[in-house]
Amino acid sequence: MPIVAPSLLASNFLRLQDEANMLNASEADWFHLDVMDGRFVPNISFGLPIIQQLRKATTKVLDVHLMIEEPEKYAEAFKQAGADILTVHYEACTHLHRNIQQIKNLGMKAGVALNPHTAIGLLENILQDVDMVLIMSVNPGFGGQHFIPQTLEKVRLLKQMIIQKGLSTLIEIDGGVTLENASAIVQAGADVLVAGSTVFNAVNPLETIAALKNS
Length: 215
Ligand code: DX5
Ligand code: ZN
Prior knowledge:
about 220 residues, alpha/beta, TIM Barrel, eight-stranded parallel sheet, 8 helices, about 35% helix, binds D-xylitol-5-phosphate, binds zinc ion
């Protein structure tokens, strides 16, 4: 069964406690938290204070996706805010290896995210150091976009690379995940499904999460 990580970007921020309670009562495994700086991506979302509050609202894993430049400046603050997994973008890190070591030394799991145009092969010399690879299946910055079909091939390729190297790196898919495409994504090799609008715009979010879990 895949790990299901609803993205709170699509939640109602005025009712964050209720949204957290709903996820706590659901089969969701992780909270996916999208931090945007208005520089790396053309949108600003939320930051440390919201994550601090969510830390008090759940014991589930806080999976923090940093869509920001210079993530090394903030890694320690995200640890203090309660992040369990910290993912940085390949395209935002000149010194990716150093950034990954920093995150792990702070006691968090480290992820690297790839934009849709970034090739899997570029991970050749970093894959053994990361706990998770987040493959963007939309261009980062906004929820509610359509899944880019070529992503499936990237997932298959990455899965092969992980197996060849004898690693247990998780593959997370983020963007445009729906009840219709979730099974194909899992079949291609994804371990973690992020879903924002599919979960929070659903008439019954609990059932939708359960359905994603059974993909
Ligand atoms: C996009 C974010 C995603 C987003 C997914 O930049 O990284 O996590 O919230 O939203 P949906 O599932 O609606 O595509
Ligand atoms: Zn995300």
